[in-house]
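Internal QA ticket QA-208
Title: Verify multi-chain structure generation after dependency bump
Assignee: T.L.

Test input:
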Amino acid sequence: MTAVTTEGGPDFVPAAERIAVFDNDGTLWCEQPLQVQVLFTLDRASAMAMADPALAQRQPFKAFLDHDMAAIHALGKEGVFEFAFAIHAGMPVEAFQDEVRQWLASARHPKLDRPYTQVVYQPQLELLAYLRANGFKTFIVSGGGVDFMRAFAEHVYGVPPEQVIGSSVKTELRETNGRFQLTKLAQLDTFDDRAVKPANIWLHIGRRPILAFGNSDGDQAMLRYTLDGPGRRLALIVHHDDDTRESAYDRDFKLSPLTDTLDRAAEFGIHVVSVKNDWAQVFPPAR
Amino acid sequence: MTAVTTEGGPDFVPAAERIAVFDNDGTLWCEQPLQVQVLFTLDRASAMAMADPALAQRQPFKAFLDHDMAAIHALGKEGVFEFAFAIHAGMPVEAFQDEVRQWLASARHPKLDRPYTQVVYQPQLELLAYLRANGFKTFIVSGGGVDFMRAFAEHVYGVPPEQVIGSSVKTELRETNGRFQLTKLAQLDTFDDRAVKPANIWLHIGRRPILAFGNSDGDQAMLRYTLDGPGRRLALIVHHDDDTRESAYDRDFKLSPLTDTLDRAAEFGIHVVSVKNDWAQVFPPAR
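Actual output:
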């Protein structure tokens, strides 16, 4: 840190260029047994099927309603998230965020039995704060839906909406009662994963980050893109190897595996952070 | 200003929500005789035709090379900008920005005879600084190319790249000599004009602005979207009515006319700023 913040030093980076990017699911908060937005979608799909029972017989609704993990995993990360995005088509963007906030206020993690906003990683909260205290601008770059994440990222991570980049659907400007309102469409805009992450970083930030933190193969392109710039660079992944305090998983998590990036971390110059060995505390103290 | 910055007051807006958005061409800098990026494209097209004479016979190259204003205007704003974007396909994004910076360092405005970075509007520079001094975050939301604007916006306007939103082409992550590099493609991503502006504001900022400044019908959706939120709001347009100090134009400027927005400004609650009557100085002192 001293190297990039010491003015006049050989590795000095002006504050404006101190860009740090973080994946969200599995990097800033827990993504087991499924990504939080998928669990949210599951509840939402149940509510929709109650209102319209015919839905319950249709795939992929049925898979979600039956908690059929094999079928859900078979959809793949993009398939699952596309379903999650599509079922909110027709909602004004702000109404969607209100629904997310209401759900987060009452839903609890099935294993850890605490609100999802408290299954965030304590060491990462400290790292975000440390980076900002040293003039870094911290961004989230995640496959999760951008409107979903923005509903809590400012409050929970201290990351304002304009520094949250994610997957998105197209929106349409509609005039209702003489007022302009943006409404979510079913059509995917970008699925912010793999090679799309660097492209979205450029579109939204316009600079190559100097620090990137991820936890899956979906982050590899972002991590390597970050390392490929000039000057001092840092890329890290969380390796979830602690089944006591959290969940141990990597290459077998179908919805977002960590395989190649773990195997070739040293080759790429990516630091591997072990939850078991490197994190004194995993979650914040219970409130 | 006091109303939104006075804590405890009825109209107080927390600093995080003080979002101001500005169009660029014709709002922050001069767009006559043509938008600066179109003039840049004209020079670039000439250079390409020198290297490959067959290009000179092809439209729309021919129109640009012949300075055929009727033909250029006939393309429309989106057509002209699409051409501007497409001719840089295949370039790494950073190389494109280097080219823009080199061009800006030597090119001069044909009528005002000064660098384009000095045909920015002095009152707007003061307004940007005033807003930032009062806790506002200032964004550019323009039909211009995002990479083009980011090449000078931080230096000239004090607006960092991550606060510049514009039209964009798709980019592709390519590996060259083992290094990841984003390359511009010919395919348009978004043309950031009219109803697309609010959609891009939501995608990039995730909040409805409380202040918006534009100068053409292309800004009307953004201005009205801004006004349609709750609480104190401000929307303004520059009306270019000073042919002595700048150029007087509005409804006849084919590439970006101001017609309906001017005619219905009072109805929409949009303030009209007259260059002739309201601006003591138009451009910064010559350097």
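Spot checks passed. Chain A touches chain B at residues 16, 19, 93, 137, 146-147, 150, 154, 160-164, 168, 170-173, 179-182, 189, 195, 198-199, 202-207, 221, 224-225, 228 (CB under 8 Å).
Status: verified.
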